[in-house]
Structure formats: structure tokens, C-alpha cells
Amino acid sequence: MIKIVTDSVSDIPPQVVEELGITVVPLIVSFGSEYFRDGVDLTSDQFYERLQTSNVFPTTSVPPPLSFAEAYDRLADETDEIMVITVTSTLSGTHEKALQGKTLMKKECRVEVVDSRAEIMAEGFVVMRAARAANAGASHQEVMEAIERTIPRVDILGAFDTLEYLRRGGRIGAAKVLLGSMLNVNPLISVRDGQVIAAGKTRSRSRAIDRLYEFVEGYSHVEELAVERAACAEEAEALIHRLGKLFPEERIHRCKISPVVGAHTGPGLLFVSILGDKA
Predict the structure, then answer these.
(1) Contact between residue 191 and residue 9 where contact means Cβ atoms under 8 Å apart
(2) What is the number of alpha carbons within 13 Å of residue 217 lying toward its C-beta?
């Protein structure tokens, strides 16, 4: 059976990771000289608490190739084929490190590295589809077909309370048009073709959250839905309850934005990720 590997940017809930047998290679987040494996040495809650109190701005880095090689070698004891699905290569060097990890393996095993062209749970949904296909006994070609069908059907929309963290981290991309008025608006951000883009702006946080609801409302068919949050748990739960009118509430994935993403987005981020078809 094919084994599936991904990175910690995918934000897949731990219970789903365990259920589907997915291996997650963590990125690195640091505060000065202190280094932490994303979601392993530092939980999301611990990170956001520190983010709001620390005088040191966090930085992030990709996993070293050896981290991938070690994951591949462990899985090679269980399978002769591994498929690695990474965060979009346009925003992260993780894809390249996953490829380099193949050259450091000590065991024989076929490893294929695939660029999801997505991030957070949009990436996660691609990984989950691949894992479900693999667990059902799908061939390499069938798993690849599942991935290729899923990638164009995932989308994300996020509401920020500030773009300051994106600006500091240099990840603002095409969304820089919002910077001039970022103190007076609640910006909305999406990712298209691996690039962070402006998706609009509102004059209040409540209206920004309305836009997240309307984003889901614009889909005629929803297969997977996730609400991802940083340090705004109450807003996330209220949105989940509201989205229950459009999609079964018990099936909405509750996700915490990983520290390595939060370092670039800040504590007020609220995201909706979706797999489906627009009306």
C-alpha cells in the first residue's frame, strides 16, 4: 500500500492524520536562537500566546532534507512506494527539500514528490484524498489521478485583522495593494496558483467574517469544509455554527493554523478552506 507524506503547513487535524496513517514532516519556527519543530516542540496555542507577548519576531524555515529522508526510511520498512505532497513550491522551499531527501535515503523505496499548489487545509484536502485512495488499495496512477482531480477543486479565503505580519515576513505578494490602508480595513486574502493575493477588504471584522460565510454559500456542492483559526477560537466556533446551515456542522474540520503559518499571518487570522464546486 502506498504511504502518504506531507508537511506541517497542511494543518490536517491530528485525529485525521492518525486515522488515515499520514506522515507529517514539520517545518521549523524560531524565536531568536530558539528553534522548534512546528506542532511538535511548540503547539499552536503555545505559539500564539508567545507571539503576542514576545519582543522577538518569529522566523520560519523549511525542514532539512534529512528530516524527509528519515521519514522515507521509516516508511520503507512498511511499503515499497511513498508519495509526498507538499505545500506550494511558490511560497516555500519545502518541495525542493522533499526532493533532496530522496538522495539521502538509506533504504530502497520508490518516492514521488508532488506539489499541491496549495497551502493550509486546501493542501490538506489534497493530502487526505490521496491517503484515502491509497488506503483503499489504489495504484500509483490512481492516487495521482485523485490528486490531479482534487487540486483545481480546493480554495481558501482568510480574514486578517492586520497584514503587518505578512509584510514583515515578505510574503505579501500581490496582496501588497492593501498595505496602504491596512490600518483602516479588515483585509481578505486567498492563494491563487501558489501566490498570496488580495481578495477584498471590509471596514469591520464582522463584515469580513460575513464574507467567509458568503464564500461557502457560493458553492453548489461541498465535499469537505474546514474552519482554521489562530488565536480567535470564539469567532471560529461562531462561524462553524453559522456554516452549519450550509454544511453538516459535525463534518466541518476544526483546525488550528500551524505556528509556521502563524508566524507570517498573526493571531487574528480566520480561514475557511473548501473542496467542492462553485454554483
Answers:
(1) no
(2) 10
pLDDT (tens, 9 = 90+) of the chain, 279 residues, equals 999 999 999 999 999 999 999 999 999 999 999 999 998 998 888 999 998 888 888 999 999 999 999 999 999 999 999 999 999 999 899 999 999 999 999 999 999 999 999 999 999 999 999 999 999 999 999 999 999 999 999 999 999 876 666 666 555 554 454 444 455 567 888 877 767 777 888 888 999 999 999 999 999 999 999 999 999 999 999 999 999 999 999 999 999 999 998 888 888 899 999 999 997
User: What one-letter code names the amino acid at 168?
Assistant: R
Domains of the chain are: 3-152 (3.40.50.10170), 153-278 (3.30.1180.10)
d(CA 58, CA 258): 13
Cell of 122: 486546501
Query: Rounded to two decimals, what is the model's pTM?
Result: 0.92
Distance between CA 145 and CA 147 in Å, rounded? 5
The rounded distance, in Å, linking the Cα atoms of 6 and 26 is 9
Q: What is the DSSP string of 150-193?
A: HGGGEEEEEE-S-SHHHHHHT--GGGGGGGGGTTT-EEEEEEET
Q: Cell for 237? A: 466556533
Q: Is 250 exposed, middle or buried, given 0-12, 13-18 or 19+ CB atoms closer than 10 A? A: exposed
Residues making up the chain, counted from first to last: 279
